[in-house]
Amino acid sequence: MKRLFLFVLLSTLVFSCANSQQSRGKAAAGKSSALSYPEGVAPVSEIDAPLAGLSKAVFAGGCFWCVEGVFERVEGVEEAISGYAGGTSPSPTYKKVASGVTDYAEAVIVYYDADRVSYDALLTAFFSGHDPTQLNRQGPDVGKQYRSGIYYQNEAEKEAAEAFIKKLDESGRFGKPVVTEVKPLGTFYAAEGYHQDYIVHNPNQPYVVGVSMPKIEKFMKAHPELLKDKYRKP
Which EC class is this protein assigned (predicted)? Predict the structure, then answer.
């Protein structure tokens, strides 16, 4: 029994977003070259000028590497940036957020072409890329910083999110109630540069292999109609 406990404990430590090794030298090479990511964090309004004209949406669903990876594969999404949302204190950092001492969640801001992909389609991708019935956790990642959340910018987004959740609950799809919080956006802070495109730069990292990619592949299998051409199987 003690050996089993130690195995589970060690597995959780290895395969958790907060305890994973970070490739700090690989900043954001995979992102748009027009974007400039600071070594620390910054309100996204300071760095999103190159994406002006696109619609934005913000989601939290556990480790932001996983959520970013899902949305980067959706047709019509031009950019997905990992960061922090749902909190009120100024200048959150990964160290603070990951330790659970702030009220922020790891989140992703999605820049998308509304003529090519709808907000409802983004909701479909979001709810297919994580378990929205887990309260303040996602798999091995435990704490309010890993909560499920939709952070709306207007009443239309709020109504769409609430209607989508109601439909999910009525369908019994997950077997449990959806606990995703739906709150006004407030300020979204872009995370440190080494978090951007983390899966692209660290494909063999244990957490990526054991947690991130299975989530992404599950989404891709469930909704091939939402994928960019390069991610569709022939």
Answer: oxidoreductase
pLDDT value for 41: 63
Distance (Å, whole) CA 172 – CA 180: 15
CATH number belonging to the domain at 2-229, selected among 3.30.1060.10, 3.40.190.10, 3.30.390.50, 3.30.43.10: 3.30.1060.10
d(CA 109, CA 18): 20
Beta strands (DSSP E) in 22-165 are 42-43, 55-61, 77-85, 105-112, 137-138, 141-142, 148-152
pTM of the full predicted structure?
0.87
Q: Which of 27, 51, 60, 63 is catalytic?
A: 63
Per-residue model confidence as pLDDT tens digits over 69-82: 999 999 999 999 99
Question: Six-digit token pair at 95?
Answer: 């160290």
Catalytic site includes residue 63: yes
